[in-house]
Write a structure and sequence with these properties.
- It is a single chain.
- The protein starts with 13 loop residues before the first strand and ends in a 7-residue tail after the last strand.
- By secondary structure, the protein is an alpha+beta fold.
- A hairpin with a 3-residue loop joins strand 16 (about 385-390) and strand 17.
- Strands 13, 14, 32, 33 and 35 form a five-stranded mixed β-sheet that branches. Strands 7-2-1-10 form a four-stranded mixed β-sheet. It has a four-stranded antiparallel β-sheet with strand order 3-4-6-5, covered by helices on one side.
- The longest helix has about 40 residues, at about 150-190.
- Helix content is about 25%, strand content about 30%.
- The chain has ten helices and 35 strands.
């Protein structure tokens, strides 16, 4: 199934699971579950809409719209405020507009269950194949119906193609031999042109001329007749040369066809005899000569070049027992960006080339009007992503399930991927390979609360999400790090304060607990970042107006959790308040993304290491009105170096 993953329908849509495909491939029969391609899009006024852009195969769009309207009219479908068909020449687009209080996931699931947006396609591969054992002497090979799997289908298709090519070559050979026969007669006539003209002039009638030509030059009746029908213009020197060249080409064609067919098949004449002899020959020799197979391969490649187009139907491996999808996905680091309005996408890290400090950067996305980039992180495609929200809940998703988009694309609404509630937004994401009991998640909130919980407590497959941290009124969960329980934690505030303390000062507590104080905040200050200390690492901070700096962690003394901390950056009108911090190594790369969608990737080593209380150096040149939105650390791979 790596080569033939499944059927590709002209209407696109989705195939859910691979069990039906496997059954059809193995035995020729299987039921394939198909689903319409539908997305949930936010609208003005806090409402949502379901956009249907592709349908299962053989589902009529007009009938589907009528079916949805009937469900709304009879009040079986609640929460729909409008239904319209916006399809045009560019493609299909059916909009199901929802009321403000409607849950879009509930409505979409109802449509899947009660309409043809989810349907089954029965695959029944019954074909007619030759049954050589049932043939009686002197009779043609009968064709019998059989249900075949994909391997047998391909085998019989190749047998059919070989038979077609053999018959075609026989036909072409017979035509070439007939033409060569005529050309040989022409050559005899042109060589004895005066004698031929004399015989024709002296003959009483065309039949008499034909007989004399046949007798004099030992020609066949067809050759003699062709000479009589020869136009006078063919007797010129130029036309005589063309006859010689055509004869040479025909002889080459005959040689090529005889080489393909073999001498056993080269002398057959008559379509019925050819068909019977070819089938008998195929029965004795199931494998054709290599040159016949080369023709089969060449014609299939030519067909692929002319007719191939991108795959339309997407196969989603939703079945729990089918976990082979990981083997088909290359493991690579991906840059994931999310906007304030909840649009998410992923791109390979290599998309963003490394630039020098202070560069202009590249466009990271085309943002919607009044939307800004709010979050950026790096993860492998083979990991599980835990999405933590500002309301203290956590959802899980495989990294490869995040749609990959172009660098300028806005992305997909995150509500299409995880069922977050209205007013809830994703603030942090962690890539987790294994939910170990010896590992911990250390969390921090905007108001300075911290919490440590064993990673194993978050291993759940509940689609609705689970509680990660109970928050006090007005607080939001913003940062989560995976630790071994023995590390030092850094917290940095917007006004340039920082604190370093051992995570041992925060004992492991339950998943639904509220946490303890990590740093005491001054008035109008808030936490902007949390990091876990490493040996020989630096603390890198970035400010709103494009400035930043890195400082050795050794310059930050360990303190008691809950203190006011020490200064890490001199905040002024020139550099602006701090917007992000990262614990980095000199060989790392730094990704900086702005509110206008610009992204720059640069070496951390190019950013000067300076003291705690300085204002920093310029990291990126910003256009008027643009600001740094967030930063992310990228560990450099050997291939990049």
């Amino acid at each position: 199934m790596e080569v033939l993953p499944g059927p590709d329908f002209p209407t696109g849509g989705l195939i859910l699971g691979t069990s039906g495909i496997r059954q059809a491939y193995d035995g020729g029969r299987g039921s394939i579950t198909m689903q319409a391609r539908a997305t949930i899009e936010p609208m003005e006024g806090g409402k949502n809409a379901i956009l249907i852009t592709e349908l299962p195969y053989q589902v009529n769009k007009a009938q589907l719209v009528e079916q949805i309207a009937q469900l709304v009219t009879t009040k079986r479908l609640q929460g729909v405020s409008g239904l319209r068909d916006e399809s045009d020449r560019k493609g299909m687009r059916v909009v199901v507009e929802l009321r403000r209080d409607a849950n879009p996931h509930v409505v979409l699931n109802f449509l899947y269950k009660h309409t043809r947006m989810r349907a089954s396609f029965a695959m029944n591969a019954v074909v007619l194949i030759p049954e050589y054992a049932a043939r009686k002497p002197g009779e043609p090979v009968p064709l019998v119906p059989r249900t075949l799997g994909i391997k047998d289908l391909i085998t019989h298709f190749l047998d059919h193609r070989r038979e077609v090519i053999v018959l075609r070559c026989q036909h072409d050979l017979a035509r070439a031999q007939a033409r060569a026969h005529i050309l040989e007669g022409y050559r005899v006539a042109l060589k004895n042109l005066d004698a031929v003209i004399k015989i024709i002039r002296q003959a009483e009638s065309p039949p008499a001329a034909r007989s004399k030509l046949m007798k004099r030059f030992k020609l066949s009746e067809r050759q003699a007749q062709a000479i009589l029908e020869l136009m006078l213009q063919r007797l010129t020197s130029l036309e005589r040369k063309k006859i010689d060249e055509e004869y040479k080409d025909v002889i080459k064609t005959i040689g090529r066809l005889e080489d393909i067919l073999g001498k056993r098949l080269s002398g057959l004449v008559g379509s019925e005899d050819q068909l019977r002899a070819t089938r008998e020959w195929l029965q004795k020799h199931p494998w054709q000569p290599r040159k016949v197979m080369q023709l089969v391969k060449g014609e299939l490649l030519e067909l692929k070049e002319k007719r191939a187009d991108p795959r339309r139907t997407e196969i989603r491996p939703h079945e729990a027992e089918d976990i082979s999808v990981e083997d088909l996905i290359a493991e690579e680091d991906m840059v994931v960006t999310m906007t304030r309005d909840g649009y998410i996408k992923r791109l390979p890290v290599a998309t963003y080339r490394t630039q020098a400090r202070g560069g202009k950067g590249v466009t990271g996305l085309t943002r919607k009007e009044e939307d800004v980039v709010d979050h950026l992180f790096v993860a492998s495609t083979h990991t599980t992503i835990l999405f933590f929200t500002n309301q203290g809940k956590v959802y899980r998703l495989r990294a490869h399930e995040i749609p990959q988009a172009s660098r300028q694309a806005r992305g997909t609404a995150v509500i299409n991927l995880i069922p977050i509630e209205q007013g809830e937004r994703v603030t942090v994401a962690r890539a987790v390979r294994e939910f170990s009991k010896d590992r911990f998640l250390f969390m921090a909130t905007r108001l300075g609360t911290v919490k440590k919980t064993r990673l194993s407590e978050y291993d759940t497959r509940l689609k609705g999400g689970i509680i990660a941290l109970r928050l006090q009124k007005g607080d939001e969960l913003e940062w989560v790090a995976e630790t071994d329980g023995k590390r030092d934690i850094f917290l940095v505030t917007e006004q340039g304060q920082s604190i370093r303390f051992s995570e041992k000062q925060a004992r492991p507590i339950g998943r639904t607990a509220a946490g303890v104080r990590g740093i005491r905040l001054r008035k109008k200050d808030s936490v902007v970042g949390m990091g876990v200390a490493r040996k020989h690492a630096d603390l890198l901070v970035a400010s709103r107006h494009g400035y930043g700096k890195r400082t050795a962690l050794t310059e930050y003394r360990a303190q008691t959790r809950g203190g006011i901390g020490i200064k890490t950056m001199n905040v002024s009108k020139r550099n602006g308040p701090i917007v992000g911090m990262r614990i980095v190594d000199e060989d790392d790369d730094l990704l900086i993304i702005t509110t206008e969608g610009q992204i720059i990737r640069q070496r951390v080593g190019q950013i000067r290491r300076i003291g705690r209380t300085t204002q920093g150096v310029r990291l990126i040149r910003l256009d008027k009105g643009d600001q740094i939105a967030s930063i992310a650390r990228v560990v450099r791979q050997e291939a990049e170096e």
